[in-house]
Amino acid sequence: MLRARLKLAFLILIGLTFVANQSATLGQDKLDPELINKKRTLELLDKAKDEYRIFFKKPETAIEFWSAIKFEMDLGKFDLAALHMKLMLEKEPPADTDKELVKIEAVEGMSAFLRLRQVRQWSDHPPFQKEAEANVESLLNRLTEAVHKHLSDPVRIKKFIDQLGASTPEERAFAYVQLARSREHAVPYLIEALRTNYGKPLFPRLRETMVRLPPETVPVYLEVFHAANEKDFRDIELRGTLLSIVKERDDKRVVPYLWHMIASKKYPDAIREKAKETLASLLRIKITELPPARESLTYLAERYYQHKVAFPEGKDVLIWEWDGQAIKTPPEKLTPASAEKFYSERYAREAIDLDPGYAPAQIVLLSMMLERHYRPELDQFIIKPMPPKLQQLLTTMDADVMMRTLERAMDDGQVPVILPLVKALGDRGEQRAARVNEAGQLRGLARALHYPDRRVQFAAMFGLRDMPQGVLTPAAADRVVDLARRFLASGPAPKALLIYIPPGNEPPARQAVKELGYESVIAKNANDAINKARASADYDLIVLGRGVADGDFPLVYAKIRKEYDLGGLPMIIVTDKAREKLVKKLVAKDANVAVLVEERFQGDELKAAHDTIHKNAQIVKLTPNERKVFAGASMDFLWRMAKGEYRGYDISPAVNVVTDQLINPEYAVPAIEILGRIPGKENQYRLAGIVSEPKNDKLRDPAAMELNRHIHANGLALDRKQIADLKTAHKEAPQESFLRSQLNVTMSLIDRPGLSRTGADLFNFRPDPPAPPPAPKEKEEKKDN
């Protein structure tokens, strides 16, 4: 006996050496849906184990291999067990092996196979150990797939559904066990059977099975409670049966589906009453104490919209759709974010269906629709036109609902909702959205001017441009000009504002943010940072260095976050190891913040933190195209203000930024036209300097026009040198040029000729002689015919 065993072991080791470096390609064929005979499988397993123990027969089938694997593991011969596992996986055809694996799992359960993962060492030879570990995972994956296909096989499931009506209790019990093993896979076919067998002998067995199935099967048929069409609303038999089933199971997961059912007259009265009974039973209250359905539905919609409903982490949300006849398989898989939108929209629409004039439900639905549409493409909102259907909706719907939705969106920080509402209210010229409320607080578009997001500020600025004079408060009008100034002052590249960087650390800090794609600007303290942020709108990141004192950090952080031109930007806080936990605790609720120990403020860790906060932040980094659009539109805005097209604005605070555009070929001409309309001798000096300088080329003509306009409106404010330079330019200008004609006007405004001078000019004036008439053409001699 011992010699035979040693001989077999020797042969196995030879085989192990031969196949160590070979790879197996495992096929997957459809399983045979024959009834599993547990008793026969158990007998085969016992027989294989006995034969292997007594005769050491070479395994041929999966059952024999499995018995050999277990036997060798019991003896501690894990290398031999690993070889048996490898040979079993390589056995052809794989479909036959899968059938036997399914039979083994039915008898011994998945835990018997999971035991393989607990083996720490299959072999002391590293390649064999690595191969054995891979084979364990391959076997488990293959078994899982095979069992799944077997249990979800429609032919098998329908066979056992029919067997629920068998004549003997043993057959019916066995059918139930097999359906319970199939769990959620069996439910769609059971629902179909319930629908088609109502009033038939099989129906009570089906109902009993539905009551007894495991809890994880209930979500599969929840969508049946949501009628799919007008015909489905009138279904009494199936829906009434399911109501009694969930009431008997006392499963509260059905509660959200019942609110619309108890109140909508689309459902038959019998179903509505049964739904009320079920709902009251599940909530443990009297039917008369049920709250209004529209309010409960709106509350549910709010919870999903506000992300207050928890979903299994790292898993898809399964929706088993119902079409009025059958449950669709496989289920639709939604991410948690998509599931939130799905349920929020459903419950809001159901509330509106019950009461079309219910404003709270309208607000939730509008908010959800706007967020779903605009969140993926915030950086395209200003550039792309609004979809026609959405624009029509926002143009015609009740303005009060829009303003209430806007106020709530600003409270909640929902930029995708704010932007389209601000634009729509501005396009509608809704004056109520530009005023303060009775308490003197900013609301609507006026409040949006101060919202800490540049896209929102820009949309509000243009939404208010056509408001009649007197609608805006002076403070709001000044804010509009200030925003135009900041957008115009912004550069084409994103900037990072570095605050409280310790002395000597500036160069590495600049280099770190440069690698992230930012130009760096250093601010000494919070006040300096706020002043720099108010100067232009081109900052996309804040870096708060560890130079701020420990005791001052909460105040500094709060001060920056409250500044509406700075507070919403993503922020990286650099600290030391000693106060890392304290800083993280203080900023824990701020999704736009990342905290890094100083040693990690570089390389991959810095980039990872930067990418994370920009992914989570509501304020999305401006694109180069947006920066260009914002600057050009702001220049046009200031230009129209200066010309008087938009009234009620004082653009003098923007004069320095406008002057800076004189060197910009794209904006130089409108900048000159703006300066010509702003009082002040400095502006007259600038215009005269442009006119006097021959190098200014094409800018001299518009500058001369605006200089004359400025002198007419504000009087002559030039000094002697500037006047002398203008006279020189006048003499040198070509006689017939537009510049010469404008400078003629300038000279008249400078010299102010009196009556005597005018009389002398008239006396000495001699008109140019008329040009000689053209010479007559010689007549052609007529030729003789």
Strand order of the largest sheet: 4-3-5-6-7
| Portion in helices | 55-70%
Strand content: under 5%
**Helical stretch tally:** 37
Number of strands: 7
Largest sheet: 5 strands, parallel
Radius of gyration: 41 Å
How far is it from the N-terminal to the C-terminal residue, by CA? 142 Å
**Unreliably modeled segments:** 1-37, 781-785
Shape: elongated
Indicate the structural class: mainly alpha
Describe this entry's structure for a reader.
The N terminus and C terminus are likely disordered. With about 775 residues, this protein is mainly alpha-helical.
Short account of what is shown:
58% of the residues lie in helices and 4% in strands. The protein is mainly alpha-helical and 785 residues long. Helix 24 (474-489) crosses helix 30 (624-643) and helix 32 (668-675) runs parallel beside helix 34.
Topology, please?
Elements: H1 2-19, H2 38-55, H3 62-74, H4 78-90, H5 94-108, H6 110-114, H7 126-151, H8 154-163, H9 169-182, H10 187-196, H11 202-212, H12 230-233, H13 237-249, H14 255-263, H15 269-283, H16 293-305, E1 317-319, E2 332-334, H17 336-354, H18 359-374, H19 388-396, H20 399-412, H21 415-427, H22 444-448, H23 454-463, H24 474-489, E3 495-499, H25 506-515, E4 519-523, H26 526-535, E5 539-544, H27 553-562, E6 571-575, H28 580-586, E7 593-597, H29 603-616, H30 624-643, H31 655-660, H32 668-675, H33 681-692, H34 700-714, H35 720-732, H36 738-751, H37 755-764
Parallel strand pairs: 3-4, 3-5, 5-6, 6-7
Antiparallel strand pairs: 1-2
